[in-house]
Description:
five-stranded mixed β-barrel, 24% strand, eight-stranded mixed β-sheet, BirA Bifunctional Protein, domain 2, 3 domains, Gyrase A, domain 2, alpha+beta
Amino acid sequence: MSLCFKKRTHTCGELRKSHIGRRVTLLGWISSLRDHGGIFFINLRDRYGVTQVVVDKRELIDRVKRWRSEFIIEVTGEVRERPPDAINPNMATGEIEVLADDVHLLAEAKVPPFVIADDVKVRPELRLRYRYLDLRRPAVQRNIILRATVVREIRRYLDEHGFIEIETPILAKSTPEGARDFLVPSRNFPGKFYALAQSPQLYKQLLMVAGFDRYYQLAKCLRDEDPRKDRQPEFTQVDLEMSFVTEEDVFELVEGLMSHLWKTVLGVELESPFVRMTYREAMERFGTDKPDMRFGYELRDVTPIAKASDFRIFKQADKVVALLWQDELSRKEIEELETIAKEAGVGGLAFMRVKDGTIAGGVSKYFSEELQKGLLKLLDVRGDGTILMTAGDWKPTLEAMGAVRSKLIERLDPPNEYKFVWVTDFPIVEKTDTGYEPVHHIFSMPKRLDFEHPENMVGHVYDLVLNGVELGSGSIRAHKREIQEKLLEIIGLTKQQMEERFGFLLEALEYGAPPHGGIALGLERLVGEMVGDRHIPNFIAFPKTTTGLGLMEGIPGEVTPEQLQELHIKIEKPKQ
RNA sequence: GGGGCCGUGGUGUAGUGGUUAACACACCGGCCUGUCAAGCCGGAGAUCGCCGGUUCGAGUCCGGUCGGCCCCGCCA
């Protein structure tokens, strides 16, 4: 069978008035076909746009009559101006049309399970099952193209700044720390496994040891954890690492990269340097390590006033924080917020109402007039509203109020702003019931060594946060073997375990490892946040569902007994 | 692992224990030379996700199960 079609001269998105009179050939999908008897209008679509084709010749109409949406056709004809009353201002090509003098069918199409158009609502599972049709919708294509544009500009910027793009292995070593690994059984070595890389962290450090003092990669990362709207089992990180740098150098580079992206992709000038804030400050002002700084409503420490009240819970608490909200919240609304606060680990959520400059209701009866005045002043109350308060230990109290704040600001219209912030000085480890766990990962350089109280040890560790979303995190790394070993010891690894899991890294640190650091940014989150869409599957061509299934391919799927045998694997299914 | 919401012609929805499951779009046929999500006339199309239970009677109530979305856990 011969492939018989004319070469296309233009795309469906580029013809304008300046092309009038030109003879053109377009190839594309029929997005709509309007039959007026003696004249047919075809909207012809490709990824560049839609162009109206007019068919009025008898012999062509006999052919076109049998066509319908999503057939692929070839159209040759002359570009002509539309009659003034037929101009479509909603179409980029709306001033012209192509009068067909020859049309051919290139491919028929079954009636699709849903109409291929932006404004047609479709169940998500159906969209995923027929993702190749979903991807034909212009709005979905825009997301994928946006991603490609961002990727291109990332490469352009980093290449120009002396970075070398290096790929690191996908088949890597399993580590019980951190996220659950996807495992790949070894055929040649029965009972042994590769792990799919969760991130290129260790490899990029080894590249620094190797002397590639500026490395980057658009790295696929694979983590076997339950997905969320902002988390997929496989996703992409903009991973970079530099030698001989301080935190400030990393900030400057990344701010430059962000400014470049916003300027070239969105045409927006970002303000830089970005705001910097320590982890501690972020917690105390916003109750979270990823503050959304598009909104005010900061938390206030009211411990001295609250402790002086007659409210027993407050008197006994380490910390009492308050949040002043602009509206009068109903009993029911406060109860909902209290549920959120309790989930974050506090006993409850107290409230008082402010009306006409005075406090009433809720726990106000435990506060003397003087304390109430102090509260009004401390919270800088102007106008009516609701004061929310909670108490307990430092972290749960702040986190609880942070969760309440997040919930409340959801009610506000998000301003069209990009508020970046560097959150710095994260602790290296956190105390748990069983010992110490890394807050980020365990390869970061502490600012001060404190092996007596590791939980007090702050690191050269930072997150880049945009509009309340963690875009990525990074650090200056521990580039000396002794320090790295000490850190591993703190999280409970024996010498033997260190050797087994990270021996290759520790050894490399002994052969002239430069001071180095970097960052990894979530590409899908970054792209999504540029256009205010926090559903990252929208920026992945073939995403998984929230249970990790691939509905189109039907994965995970069965394998043959022969495959299993070759891999030395026996399946034991869970009992009912 | 846990919680919430959802599943009804191809698609999106309505249907709040009782007749023949309703509507819009899509689809099929017809008419029409200026439409653009064309219009008009006509038609076909559903075992109400699946299994079981309650009931004289279940799309509707109950239990289980499969699938989706959102959330908690988890995500160094």
